[in-house]
Structure formats: structure tokens, C-alpha cells
Specification:
13% of the residues lie in helices and 35% in strands. By secondary structure, it is mainly β. It is elongated and about 90 Å long.
Length: 173
């Protein structure tokens, strides 16, 4: 994925590389809607981001409130699920000091920019509940006809007897 498609979460922290250890910059984020990747759009994205110069690179941390559009697991309707995102990441500089860890990020000192889009996408998806609901009392879909029971009852008969046991029903009647 090209960073040119989603540039609004790229920040220039190059000045921190020339600053003394402990120097930090606070950035307030308040986007009504922001597309952080092809499959993730956050509505809204609000919070505070702090970037601090450390001996290993630039440490970025922050807390954000947002909501993400996803499907309800019961009725399959699209719903906006509120999420809280906590960012806590070290961007190593120079990149050669980065540990041999696939989860680590390197800071490109030549451009001075840090792209938080991929990290924000990952943290947003991890913040989603495992079973998002449109509302706590969602009734879901009818197992027979697929009618959304939140919109009204269906006309299905409540026949909960296993067809293999239908002969035994005659004994009850």
C-alpha cells in the first residue's frame, strides 16, 4: 500500500533527531472522518499524540477515541462501533539499531516523517470487540427464513421438533 493514498497520519518528527533526549511534541488529533487504509475508516478520530526523543529513536504514545463501521454479528447490519485506541510504539533510529523483531518500526531519518497509518489501522482492528453488536438487545436473523427480527416478526412456524422424531409426535397427539 502506498503512503501517498493516505497521507493525513504522516507527521514530520525529523526535528526530534537533532533535539536533546527527552524533547517531545504534543499533537492534538480531531478528524471528523479519516480513512487510514483501504479497509478502515475511522469516524471520528480524536485524541492526543506525544512524540518524544529517546536514545533509541522516537517514542510515540497516545490515546484516541473513535468509531469504526463494521457488521453486527447477529443481524449483519452495518453498525458504528465505538473504540478506544492506545498507541505505545518506539520508532528506532538509526534503523540499524532496530532489534530483529518483526513488530518493530524503523524511523526514516532522511525524510523525517513517521507514517502512523499502518499502526493506527492495526490498533483500530485490535480494539474492535470480538463480537460487535448494533445494540445490546439485537434479536438477529430468523434461522429459517433470514428475516431481520429487529425489523419485525417473520411468518415462520415455530416447529422445533427434529424431523427424524416426527413419528413420535403422533404419540403426543
Amino acid at each position: 500500500m502506498s503512503t501517498n493514498n493516505f497521507p493525513r497520519l504522516r507527521f514530520n518528527f525529523g526535528f526530534l533527531l537533532e533535539s536533546s533526549l527527552g524533547t517531545s511534541r504534543v499533537i492534538e488529533l480531531d478528524y471528523p472522518t479519516i480513512q487510514v487504509s483501504e479497509d478502515v475508516t475511522l469516524t471520528p478520530l480524536q485524541g492526543r499524540l506525544t512524540a518524544t526523543r529517546t536514545s533509541e529513536g522516537v517514542y510515540v504514545n497516545g490515546r484516541f477515541q473513535s468509531a469504526i463501521l463494521t457488521e453486527c454479528v447477529r443481524c449483519l447490519d452495518e453498525t458504528l462501533v465505538p473504540i478506544d485506541i492506545e498507541m505505545d510504539e518506539l520508532f528506532y533510529y538509526p534503523p540499524e539499531t532496530m532489534p530483529q523483531n518483526e513488530d518493530a518500526f524503523a524511523f526514516d531519518g532522511e525524510t523525517g516523517f513517521i507514517d502512523l497509518g499502518p499502526l493506527m489501522r492495526e490498533l483500530s482492528l485490535l480494539a474492535l470487540p470480538t463480537q460487535p453488536l448494533c445494540r445490546p438487545d439485537c434479536l438477529g436473523l430468523c434461522m429459517e427464513c433470514g428475516q431481520n427480527l429487529n425489523e419485525g416478526d417473520c411468518n415462520c412456524q415455530d416447529d422445533d421438533i427434529d424431523p427424524r422424531m416426527a413419528k413420535l409426535r403422533s404419540l403426543l397427539e
